[in-house]
Amino acid sequence: MPLCPSALLGASVAELTEWVQQQGQPAYRGKQLHQWIYEKGARSLSEITVFPKQWRDNLADISIGRSTTHYRSVAPDETVKYLLQLADNQIVETVGIPTEKRLTVCVSSQVGCPMACDFCATGKGGFKRNLAKHEIIDQVLTVQEDFQRRVSNIVFMGMGEPLINLENVVGSIKSLNEDVGIGQRNITVSTVGIPGKIRQLAEYHLQVTLAVSLHASNQTLREKLIPTAKNYTLENLLDECREYVQITGRRVTFEYILLAGVNDLPEQAEELAKHLRGFQSHVNLIPYNPIQEADYQRPNAKRIRAFMNVLQNKHIAVSVRYSRGLEADAACGQLRASKA
How far apart are CA 206 and CA 246, in angstroms? Predict the structure, then answer.
């Protein structure tokens, strides 16, 4: 693959070796370049001191493809949110979520999002463009460098709809696996569902986890919350998820944001259970993080527990996932909206 000089980040050892040879350098420089980009975190070729100075000077206009930090916000639970400024001055949001045993990065796949979900701060902000492969990988390296510890898990749950940007998302997953060393089974790709794209993702035969954002137990409510659902019925979406399980052998995770008085009733849990009966799946219930741009509220603990109990009684695997960093504009897109 011919390399774009502005995007050395995302290239494999073989691709970097080919590139350095095109520059008249010996092949071993490719491995050195790969090490400096992915292990040492070089942000410019001028930093790579093992290269001859004259050659470095000749490469002054070649960019590795790293972003700069526009804003950094730390919550009391040590979750860190970043606004990263890209080469064209667009701003993208990334989150580092530490625990004792893990460091998870929530990455964005687009600048903004075209899906316009009614409860989402990112969706309210509109859509600018897809992120390039190197711009996705850069988010992970940024968090890894800032925390000074290895990233163990990645979730594509930041700004954007990953399956609209499938080529770059898959390319970044392969590079994060092969070049950065993060296991595919520790990577989750989240989607609200784009017709035909889940099947297309399955055909790559990755070992990632697919997380499908349902957020409603029936088509009518889903269209209210997710306008693009008008083009993709709940029945067709679930059929495609079943195909994904058959092709990959991997179970599907279903994300369900609980909105007080909207989709958190026991009868809606019953309805959801009917859809998922016999499915190789797991349901993540996510209590809503309120945003200024929408009137939805988080249900209380009793409503959350009641919804969960209905699913458990119907033998649906379910857990509640509470968001981290609530004091730092926790909902996706909030920090960018307030600080960009």
Answer: 13
Give which of 105, 226, 75, 244 is closest to 172, Cα–Cα. 105
| Catalytic residue, candidates 113, 117, 120, 332 | 332
Among the listed residues 4, 78, 93, 106, the single catalytic one is: 93
Q: Tell me, yes or no, if 117 is annotated catalytic.
A: no
Which whole-number Å values give the CA distances from 186 to 154, 162, 168, 173, in the listed order?
6, 17, 18, 11
Per-residue pLDDT reduced to its tens digit, 249-275: 999 999 999 999 999 999 999 999 999
Nearest 5°: phi and psi at 101? -105, -15
What the block records as the tokens of 175 is 């590079």
Residues 206-243 have pLDDT tens digits of 999 999 999 999 999 999 999 999 999 999 999 999 99
Which residues, in sequence order, are bridge partners of residue 189?
Answer: 156, 210
Residue among 77, 48, 78, 72 nearest 60 (CA): 48
Helices 133-147, 166-175: axis angle to 10 degrees equals: 40
Is 203 among the catalytic positions? Answer: no
Instruction: Report in angstroms the alpha-carbon separations of 62 from 5, 19, 32, 59, 207.
Output: 6, 12, 16, 5, 34
User: What's the CA gap between 337 and 340, in Å, rounded?
Assistant: 6
Q: CA-CA distance, 109 to 52, in Å (whole number)?
A: 36
